[in-house]
Hints:
Blueprint: H1 3-12, H2 15-21, H3 24-38, H4 42-56, H5 62-71, H6 78-90, H7 101-107, H8 112-117, E1 126-127, H9 128-138, H10 146-160, H11 166-174, H12 186-202, E2 205-206, H13 208-234, H14 238-251, H15 259-272, H16 279-293, H17 299-307, H18 319-381, H19 383-398, E3 412-413, E4 416-417, H20 431-436, H21 440-446, H22 450-467, H23 469-481, H24 483-498, H25 502-512, H26 519-529
Parallel strand pairs: 1-2
Antiparallel strand pairs: 3-4
Helix pairs in contact: 3-6, 4-5, 5-6, 9-10, 9-12, 10-11, 11-12, 13-14, 13-18, 15-16, 15-18, 16-17, 17-18, 21-22, 22-23, 22-26
Amino acid sequence: MDRDTWLKYYEAAPTVVQEYLIDRDRASKNEDDAQAQLAYDNDAWDRVMDVVWDTVFAGLSKEDCRERLRRLAGDRKPEDVEKAVLFHVILPLADLISWNVEGRLQELGVPLADIQSAFRVSLRPASYGAATRRIAALAKIHLLSEEMVRRLREVLISSIKGVRTIEQVKETVQRRQGDGGLGFSREQAEAFGKAMTDFLASTQVMPEQEYAEWLNKIEQEGNTKKEIRDTIETSANPEEAEIAGHVANKLMAPAHVTFSQDEAIDAAVGQIGLSGLDEYMTKRLRNLISTRLRDVRNAMDTKAVLSRAPQVGGMGLSSEEADRIAPVIEKFYQENHQKIEAEERGQIEATAIEQQKKIEERKKRESEEHAKWFQEKVQGINPLAAAHDQVVAAMKAGTGGKDQTLDISHKSLGGTTIDGVQPPPVRLTGLTEEIGGMGVAEFRRLAKTPETAVEKIKQKFETLKQESFEHWTEGIEAWHRSPMQQQYLKLVSESFATGKPVAALVAERRAQDPSFISPEEIAALVQLNSQIHF
Length: 534
C-alpha cells in the first residue's frame, strides 16, 4: 500500500485509531516486537505490513490474509508468522476487521487469557459478561469458575448503574466468598478497580440482549454488502451485475457520501477560502469537514486538526487561521448535521429492510430443502415405512388402484399376534436440547477423553453460531442449565461454603461413587466455560 493510499485510510479512521497508529509506545513497539520475533529485514517487513494494512483498512478476508502471509513466510513456519502478526499488530485493531481475529489466534494456540489481556482499541460495544472477563484479564485476575464470573458481573453492573462507587466495588470484591464477595487481595482489588475505570471510559457496555440486537444489525449490513459483491463478481447477466453495482455504490460508500453533505462541503470550502492548497491537501480539508458534519469529530478535535502538522494528518495552519476557519465549519455543522443524519438513517433502514427480506426468503428456502432432505433420510433408514409403502402399493395394484385402509395393530403376522403394542413416540432433538440435556454419562459417550469431548461440544456451539447469534446464545444458556454444568456449579458453591478445594470434594464423592465426575472432567469443563461466553 503506497503512502498516499495509507494516509487516506488513516484520515478516514476514527480518532482513537489515528492516535494509536502514531503512538510510538504502543503501535510502533508492537510492530518492532513482531519484526524482531520473526527476524525480517526492513524490506520484507514492509511487504508484511502491506498485508496488515489491507486487512485492517481494505477488508482483506481471513483466507486471503493467511495465504499472503504464507507466501511471505520464507523458511519460517507460516503458522508462526501468522500468529505473531495477528497478535502483535492486528489484534489491537481487531474491531476494524469483519472476521474473528481472537478465534483465529485461539486456533493457532494462543491462550485466551493472553488475548484478552492484550491492549485493544475499543470501537465496538461489549456485553456485560464479555466486559467482566476482559476487565479481569486486564487486571491479570484469573476467574476460576462461572460462579465467580457471575458475581463479578453483578458488581460491574452495580457500578455502571451507579449503585456502587469505585471504592465500594473494591471493598465488595475483597470480602470473603462466604460473605458474598470474591476473596480478592487488596492488590487485586486495586488492579480491578483501575482496569474497570479505564475500560468503561473507552468502551460502551450493554446488556446481552442489546448487544445481540446490535450485533445482528451489524451482521445484516455486512451480509448485504457481501451479497452485492458476490452478485457483481459471479453474475453472468450484465444487467444484473450493473444493477448490483449501482446498489453497491449506495450501500458500500462511506457514510459521509450523501447529496446534502457534498453540497455542504462544497459551500464550506468556498466560504473558508484557503488558497494555495494542492489536490491532496484539498481532499484532506474536505475530509475534515465531512467528519465534523457527521459528528465523528467534535468542535475541539476539528480545530486541533486544523493546526496539527501535516506529517501527522493535520492541515498545518497557524493558530490565527485555525481560529478563523473553525467557526465556519461549526456553522455548517449546525445548519446541516440533522439533515445529513436523516439521510444516512434512511439508507441504513432501507438496507435493513432489504436484508431482512432476503434473510426470510433464504430461511424459507433452507427450511424447504431441509424438510425434503429429512423426509428422504427418514424414509431411507426406516424399513417399516418402506415396507408399509410397498404393501399399500401392492393393495392398490390388486384393487385396480383403489385405496384401502391398512390396520395391522391387531393382525396376525406369520402366526405371531401383535396386540396392544404401541410404537414409542418420535422425538427430534436439536443441538440446543442436546446440549441442555448433557449429563456426565452423555458427556462420556461423546469421546474417550474429556479433552476430545470438550472439542465436540465446542463444534456444536460453532454450528449454532453459524446458524445465528440467537441460536448460539440459546445454546450457551442451555449449557448453563445442563445437568453436568449444574453438578459442577454445586461443587463450586460447596467449595465456597466449606473452604475445601473442588478437587478434594471430587475425591470424596468418587470414593463413594466411582461414576461421579472426575478431576480430569472438571478441568475440561473449566477450559470449556472459559471459551463460551458472550
